[in-house]
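Let us practice reading a record.
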Amino acid sequence: MSDKVTESCIEFERVVTAQCEALIESITARREVLLEAIRQDKDTKIRTLKDQQASCTGKLQQTTGLIQFCIEALKETDSAAFLQVLKFNFR
């Protein structure tokens, strides 16, 4: 009878060990999938941020150019030229 109990316990230990190993493998595989998703999300966010930065830089350059142009237009003493500049800027 004790041999039967010993065999049963050994078999139970083997089954539990195999199931735990399978669970560890499954968790490790899932971790890798999640880490890859995080990396891809980071890359996408960085690319989006760079695109937004480029767009804002372009808008800033356009605005700076317009401000400089307006400053020069304000220095004009000829009223007609000033009005032509206003018409040009509001197209």
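A brief commentary: The radius of gyration is 36 Å.
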